Amino acid sequence: MLVLLAAALLLLPDTSSPAAGQEAGLTRLVCTSIPLDADPTCPVPAMPIQGGTAQEQDLRATLVQLRETILQQKEAMSSQKEAIKELTSKLTRCEGVALGESAQLQAKFKGGRRKQHGGKDTMGDLPRAHSQVVDHLGRTIQALKDRLASLEQQTRANPSNQAIPSDLREQLQRKLGDLESQLLNKVSELEDEKFVLLNETAAHRYKTESALNALHERVTELEKESNGFKSPDDFKVSLPLRTNYLYARIKKSLPELYAFTVCMWIRSTALSSVGTPFSYAVSGQANEIVLIEWGNNPIELLINDKVAQLPMNINDGKWHHICITWTTRDGMWEAYQNGHLRGSGENLAPWHPIKAGGALILGQEQDTVGGRFDATQAFVGELSHFNIWDRILTSEDIRSMANCSANLAGNIVPWIDNNVDVFGGATKLPLETCQERLVSS
Asked: In degrees, to the nearest 5, what angle opens at C-alpha 427 toward C-alphas 276 and 251?
């Protein structure tokens, strides 16, 4: 602008010369210095449009154009200053928001880790907070970039506007670059911490599952060691004392029977009578089936409270294999000891079917269904392989079990571990081999 003004002054004719002053209608352009805080625009005196040379008219038009250009530049600079102030304020607030939300996110993340170590998994909250902060910062930075680009585009589109000063542009770009770097660093830190936390959670889960599996295996081993049974029937029930509270109970109940065979391995350690190896009681009849030896009486078989004496002797502290058969037809019965028939008879509760749904007890005689035991009638010793069939076994089958050539399971009551419960101090113990029992018989 100053260059144009100087050129205009040089083109003006010298009015101080007499020749120039004699020309009519000429005016003089005078510029006066003003204070710094005053209006910088020079007042242009009103000039007549008509009159003067063509050169003077061109100068006047140039001055008017310069004045308009100065006013436009002033307005543009004022608008640009306001935009720059607003943009700087936005950047400052963005930095504050970024720092505040970063601190909040770190607090949430640490709190989430503390909750996870306390027993609750908060991994689901962390990704949402992380995504929200990243999205917010990304949108803010992008908006600032768009605003700055728009401002520069407007400046380039208007040739009369001055460009944004280079130092201010560099400052804005540095701030945007710093914000982008902070955002990328924060995202990287959050991803690293999230990865570490996921690894710690997976490792903790793996350790917990390994510990549980090891504990389960150990419990299984201890159960096997405590049982010590090679097979489900390889055990015996020990009743070491003559009391009214040591006994074992067969879980499976009997159906209605018209014949049966009862076999068992038995070893009595009592000094006097054997007691009651087993008893079966039903509602209304406590002596539905009972095998007992007490007082000075021999071993007796009771069916429906009817009695038959069995010619067997097993009170010697040795293992014996005994079998008893009975049928409701004529009440016929047979007694086997160690595979040999020791006695038989008939008319033992003939035509009386064995009632179903009673309680089958090993080691005690029942006065009521499942209770009222008498210590004087208790069995003392060991029992094993107590089996019941709903038919009469042949003598060959009985002999094969007694000499250890066969091991038959009852089709009504089989001798298996999970079918026998012990009470009052009675125990389940590993059983000697059949050959060892045979040698001791």
From this structure: 70
Identify whether residues 265 and 185 lie together within a single domain.
no
Q: For the segment 48-67, what is each residue's pLDDT rounded down to a tens digit?
A: 444 456 767 777 777 777 77
Q: Are residues 253 and 194 part of one domain?
A: no
Q: Which residues fall within 8 angstroms of residue 8, CB to CB, at 6 or more apart?
A: 29, 59, 62, 63
pTM score, whole prediction: 0.50
Q: What is the CATH number of the domain that holds 148?
A: 1.20.58.60
Residue 178's pLDDT band, with cuts at 50, 70 and 90, is confident
- Specify if 21 maps to a domain: no
Could you tell me if 267 and 320 are in contact, meaning their C-beta atoms sit under 8 angstroms apart? yes
Last residue of a domain, one of 224, 247, 279: 224
The DSSP bridge partners found for residue 263 are: 323, 387
Output the CA–CA distances (angstroms, integers) from residue 127 to 62, 123, 222, in the order listed: 66, 7, 46
Q: Which long-range contacts (CB under 8 A, 24 or more apart) does 158-164 make?
A: 158/76, 160/69, 160/72, 160/73, 160/76, 161/73, 161/76, 161/77, 161/80, 162/73, 162/76, 162/77, 162/80, 164/80, 164/84
Residue span of the structural domain in which 358 resides: 235-440
Nearest to 314 by CA among 332, 335, 333, 334: 335
Domain count, the chain: 2
